[in-house]
Task: inverse folding
């Protein structure tokens, strides 16, 4: 029902804001209900536990990422260089919505859920990036002296490290600045000279709102 969907969306949005601000472990279902102006009984009708709520948020985020990337990959009118630019920029903005506290909490308190995120990155993201990469190879935009599997492994390694708060804390730059520097070095390194001329890591990408799809 539309009303149920709207309520779920409100809950997901409010919970995510609290989790990002304070971390997963420090936020209670009571506080989420109070923040929403909702009774605990109503909250538990939609999400029986805090763990199911964070699971719903993660599933929704994965769904949004998959939808965005599939749309980019399937767009026959978009240049390869723009696809290569928009996908990592999108992940940058998604990651920018997470806090060190939330990522650290997921790794520490919900290792199974963190493993689920890890496996998703190494299957879906690798497959999606691989499709774009092969398009670039076929068009002569990717250097032919670098192994395709190595490029994908490096790409996943960058994402993995940027999701680790301990790595971010060692650097003096903000997360967006770090990502921009890394993408510039990485992508300009694998592109041919002609492709580098039309590539930019600073494009603006519309970030979808996380909704409770797949919950």
Result:
């Amino acid at each position: 029902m539309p009303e149920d969907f709207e309520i779920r969306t409100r809950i997901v949005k409010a919970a995510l804001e609290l989790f990002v601000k304070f971390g997963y472990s420090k936020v209670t279902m009571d506080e989420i209900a109070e923040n929403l102006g909702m009774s605990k009984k109503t909250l538990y009708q939609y999400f029986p536990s805090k763990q199911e709520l964070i699971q719903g948020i993660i599933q929704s985020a994965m769904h949004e990422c998959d939808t965005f990337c599939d749309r980019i990959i399937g767009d026959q009118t978009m240049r390869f260089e723009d696809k290569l630019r928009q996908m990592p920029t999108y992940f940058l903005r998604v990651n920018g919505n997470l806090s060190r506290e939330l990522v650290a909490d997921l790794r520490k308190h919900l290792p199974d859920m963190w493993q689920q995120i890890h496996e998703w990155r190494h299957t879906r993201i690798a497959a999606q990036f691989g499709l774009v990469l092969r398009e670039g190879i076929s068009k002569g935009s990717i250097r032919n002296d670098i192994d395709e599997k190595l490029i994908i492994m490096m790409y996943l390694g960058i994402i993995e490290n940027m999701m680790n708060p301990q790595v971010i804390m060692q650097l003096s730059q903000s997360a967006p600045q770090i990502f921009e520097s890394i993408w510039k070095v990485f992508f300009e390194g694998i592109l041919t000279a002609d492709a580098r001329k039309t590539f930019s890591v600073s494009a603006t990408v519309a970030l979808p709102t996380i909704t409770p799809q797949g919950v």
